[in-house]
Amino acid sequence: MTTERTDILEAEGLRHDHLVTVKVNERPLKLLGPRETGEQIKIAAIEQDVEIGKDYLLDEVLPDGTHRHIEDHEPVELRDQMVFVAHKPEHIVIITVNEQPVNLKGHSATGTEIKAAAIAQGVAIQPNFVLQEELPNGTSRIVGDNDVVHLREHLRFTAIAPDDNS
To answer: pTM of the entire structure?
Structure first.
């Protein structure tokens, strides 16, 4: 723990005898209790060589195995043996399918995955529809079910029934 961090905690009235041992990503971590914010837990983890970034999301692993998200500003009452998991935020891209916004996770998706996400988010298409990417030059290209599309904001697609000749 850095001297600056210790000085700040002592100035706030926290003593060294409030040392609490928790785990972050299965690595033991020593914190000065009785409470820290989510951001303070992540900073302490970074200082103690847990390989995470400040932009990571922090979850507390509850006794029943479920996770509770901890916001950066949220104070956490610390106790020994608490378990936290820090993970990169998910990459979400908003595309358009038949003029409707569709959220996709990740950096790439197949034609099948794009159609499935669109259907799950209420776009009135079927899995057997033909998917076309609308290109900036006004043309389009067919995206097969197994074709991979590298996702970026503002991609536009149309999906039409296979027997539609329009």
So the answer is: 0.55
